[in-house]
Each structure stands twice: as structure tokens, then as C-alpha cells.
Amino acid sequence: MSGYQASCPSCGGTLVFALGSSLLCVCEHCGSAVARKGANLADYGKVAALIPTPSVLALGMDGDYEGAPPFRLMGRLQLDWGQGTWDEWMMGFGDGTWAWLSESQGRFHYMGQAALPPAPRFDQIEVGQTVDLGPPGTFVVAEVRSARFVTAQGELPFDVAPGSALNYADLSGPGGQMATLDYGTGDGAEALYVGREVSLADLGLRPREDEDRRVAATGESLKCTQCGGPLEIRAPDRTERVACPWCGSLLDATRDLAVLAALDKPPFKPLIPLGSKGRLQGVEWTVIGVMERSVTVEGVRYPWQEYLLYEPRHGFRWLVDAKGHWSFVEPVPAGDVQEVGSNLYRYRDRTFKHFQGGFANVDHVVGEFYWAVARGDQTQSHDFVSPPCMLSSERDESEVNWSFGTYTPPDEIWKAFRLVGGPPRPEGVAPHQPSPYAGRVGRVWSSALLAIGVVFFVYLFFLFGGGRMVHHQSVAIPPTAVSGSPEAALFTDRFVLDRTGNLELKVQAPVSNSWLYLDGALINEETGEVDEFDLEVSYYAGVDSDGSWSEGGQGARTYVAGVPPGRYVLRLAPQWEAGHPVSGYDLEVRSRVPRFYQVALAALALLFWPIVLSWRSFRFEMERWSESDHAWVSVSSSGEGEE
Ligand SMILES: [Zn+2]
Ligand SMILES: [Zn+2]
After folding, report:
1. Which of 47, 95, 567, 601 is the 20 to 30 A CA-CA neighbour of 135?
2. Which pTM does this prediction carry?
3. Which residues are CB-contacts of 192 (< 8 A; sequence separation ≥ 6)?
4. Which residues have beta carbons under 5 A from ligand 2 (an ion)?
5. How far does residue 251's CA lie from ligand 2's centre (Å)?
6. In whole angstroms, what is the distance from residue 571 CA to residue 398 CA?
7. How much distance in Å is there from the Cα of 616 to the middle of ligand 2?
8. What are the pLDDT digits (tens) for 422-475?
9. How far, in Å, is the centroid of ligand 1 from the Cα of 7?
10. Quick check: helix, strand or coil at residue 602?
11. For residue 246, which ligand has an atom nearest its CA?
12. At residue 292, what are phi and psi to the nearest 5 degrees?
């Protein structure tokens, strides 16, 4: 390292800028911040004392990161954004380069220097905006803030007077990447840092066992500073606010539990008590805080409860209870959510449709929170659904947060947390509640259609088989016979039917511009039972002003249904048009001939269930969307459609 040594302009002690690129150094003898300005030094005066953050790091610690040269923590910067403080550590590498290690609420982010592409000005950058950062990719602006440079220790790579406000934007990129655009004290971007969340183990750093970690961290015996009730802090490194479960007062966990808002009783009683442990998605979570939130639409308040879950290695999750419908909710980096169309977003290979938007308020809080929660906090929220999942965004002026919820049956929650009694019955249909018909409707339709196909195939098979010919006769009508007279009538030869079935009677006659009518009867020789029928062949053709025309044909058929086995004859009495005698006719009798109406009835029967199911599914979806900003029709939200 190409270091640089000088005498402190304030106390004359030795100042060491160990890293050649450092521009600011806090004198370890007198505490003055001294900047390098070319060959000269400028004294910014004494820096403030360090804020006692729960940091587990210290200047001088050595580590290794992903095959880079070994590094040492050479500088520490403390920043305050108004509702919290965090530490930025300067990692100086053996080759003279450096990076930031940001430490906030027990989480660490490695942020390395990257080439600064053209970037929006600070007064123009907005949360939710996408910014092309060049080689690292396209990022989404997740946070835009100013933070006060409170104090420092060691050396730092910039020349800024302590106390200045520093402008920055945090961005979220693909694959868990994070970026910070640093605007310094102005509006133009000055530097870009790109990195990701890391663990101390990734960095080869061992946390120190600590004397000045904040009081909360040590505390089994904490007491509410308002009511004196015992407080158990379950996430001491990360908690910013505590709402006392005894009196409901809101306390500042970063400032010795100073009372921020005094109350005299807890505002509500959570269904899952604070401190409950439950295993969900393979992790044992502890409930550390509960909020009641609400949206108000047209004067009606719609409340729900959010349970904050904590596990030291996995961080925070939420359980959300809205009208008895429960969801397990995980945070999502903004950079992993893609807008793929109007009101459509994509995340984890799912496409989410916009369900509703509104302004969500924090009404009541109990327990611990990792941010500076306050009653009355308001964010603009949007929910997008792809059952059983929900994607939600919440934004205010300076931050946007995305989360991913999975619908969880209430019984599972009760079992996981070993709660007594049963869960309250869910009301209506939740936005992302899985439909009991999902998948089933498709399956039922495909099996019904398959069955109809089989029936139709069988029908075709028999149709081309054409039934069994049981009788065939060419009948001559004596030229002397009179229409309708007994001598024109005839009994056919006997035929035998061996199985019950229909009978098709087909007649073919050489009529031309005339007709032949057969008055028929099917006679069972054994029982004497008679089934009457008639057949009419008529054919007319000619030429008129429109051209040639024709009507009817030289054939006709009829059916007798459900004929039992037995010996049969037919009696046929013909009549014809006066002056148009017919020489004869040809008769064919077939048994068991398939009929199309039978297929149609079978198809209708087979389609009954799919149609009923589709209708129920439609009703379910209609009820789901009736609560959204995109209702199909206005329907009452009564419990209709539940089974
Ligand atoms: Zn000094
Ligand atoms: Zn209290």
C-alpha cells in the first residue's frame, strides 16, 4: 500500500493515510477530521463521538473475500437517515483498492466500486424507476434518501465534512445484486457501488464479543420505561422499535427504550401470542411483533393483521391474516420483479395480475420491529395475484418494497404454532386463494371429451356396419291393383330377431312427379303385438324461370324402437297418386341400427358434470374478483359458492 503520513494540523500528532487513495482521516490523537487537498491538509474540526450501534466489527479487523487480496477494515462511517443509524466500513485491500461493507440491523452488504454510467440526477430519480447501470445490468430504484454523515473513525475515501447530508439511491438488480448511486452532497451522481448481501463468514471476519453493543442486546431483564412491565427482546441486533405488550407504548430500542408514544393498554389481542414459535417452510420462526393495518375504501375500513416472524439465520418473514385467510410472506428484491405488461408482473416463473391498490395504514402495533414503525404510517400498496401466490408492492416517497405471499390453510398455521381451539372461519374468497376447481375443470372436460370421442367412434363403427340386415324383398304391385285396395297389400316373408333393438325400415320406389305411401304394421307372430308405422316416398322435379328444381327423393326410411326378440312379419298396404301407378318397391329391414340422437344424448349426459363444474369455477372466480379493482360484475360477497 502506498501510504501517506502527515502531522495533524490540530494536535501535531502523526496522521497515517494507510491507503493511497484515502482523502479523509480522523486523527486518532485529537479526533479531528483532516482532509487531503492536493499537497495541503484541511482541518474540519473534531468529529462527534461514535453512536453506540450494535456493530460486531472493529477497525483493524482482517479478512478475505472471494479470492481478492486480504483486506483490513480501515475506516468507519456512521450515517443517520432520520429514523435510524448504520455503519459503513471501508475495506482496504492489499492491492490498494477499497470497497464498502455496509452493516445495518445485523445484515452486511459488500459494495464494490463500479464504473459510473450516465445516471439520473438525484432530484429526478424516483423509487420504482429502472436504471441501466451498464455491465451490472438494469436495476430498479428501491430507496432514495439523504443521510447525515454523523461521525467517522480511521480513514475514508472521500473528502466531505462531517455533519454533511449525503444523497444516495439504493437499487436492486437481477440475481440478488444491489447497487448504490452516491450523489455526495449534490445532485449529480459521483460514484456507483455494486454488490450483494454477504455473511461475516463469507468475509472471513469473526465478530467480536462486545462490550459496547447496545443495552437491548444484553437484556433479559429489560423493563418497559413507561409501565415497568418486563420486556423480552427477541431480535436484539435488529430491533428498532418495541411496542410494549403490557401498555402498548411505543419505545425506541436504539435509544435505551425512550418512550416515543405513551399508551395505557395494548391496542388489540393477537390470535398468535408474541413469542410463539412455529415451524413453517422448514424453519422454526418466532412471532416478535404484530401490526394491525387497514385500507379505507369509500368510508369502509378493511383491517387485517400482520405477524412479524424472526429467525436469526433466515431473517424476517410475515404471516398475514386477512378475514381468516392466512399467507406466509417473504421479502423480494425489487430487481427480481419484472413488469411484463399493463398491470402484469413476473416473478419466480409466475405471471401476476393486478388485483387491487390502495393506501395501507398502520393502525396498531405490539412487539418488536426492525424498522422505525409508527402508528399512522401510510404506504401505497398494490396486490398482484397468481393463486396460490400473491405479489405485493408497498411504496412511499423514498422506498419501494416487494413481497411474495403464499396462501396457507388456517389449520396449518394452528398446527404449526400449536394454538388451542380452531382458527376463525375464513370469510369469502381471498384474492390468491387457490380455487377448489383449478385443474379439476380441465381434467373433467378432457375425460368427458375423450368419452364422447369413444362413443362417437363406436357409433361410426356400427353405422358403417349398418346394423344386421334381417329382411330384403322386392315387391311388385300388380298393374291392375287399385290404390289402397286389399289386393295391393302384402304380408312379407317371416324374419327372426334374436336380440332386442331398433328396426330400420327402408323403402326405395321409382316414383317420378308422384308419390307412394305405405301404411305398415310390424306384427309379432308369437304375441300378436302390432307396431304401426308409415312410409312415404315422393319425388317431384321440373324446370321453371329459376332453372331446374327437384323435391323429395325415391327413398324413405323409418324406425321402430325397442323391438323384442321373436318372429315377425310386416303388412304393407300401398297407396299412390291417382293416375300415377307405381310398378313396385324395394324393402330392406335392418335390426339394431345405431342412431345419432343416441350419441347426442350420451354426449349431453357426459357433458353435464363438466358444465356444472365450469359454472361453479366461474362463480368462484367471479367472487374472488368482485373484491378487486377489476370486478367482472357487481355481486354480493356472501358466502355463496362454498362447499
Ligand atoms: Zn490530531
Ligand atoms: Zn409498557
Report:
1. 95
2. 0.74
3. 113, 114, 115, 116, 117, 119, 133, 179, 180, 181, 182
4. 224, 226-227, 229, 244, 246-247, 249
5. 9
6. 97
7. 51
8. 999 999 999 999 998 888 889 999 999 999 999 888 888 877 777 788 999 999
9. 8
10. helix
11. 2
12. -105, 125
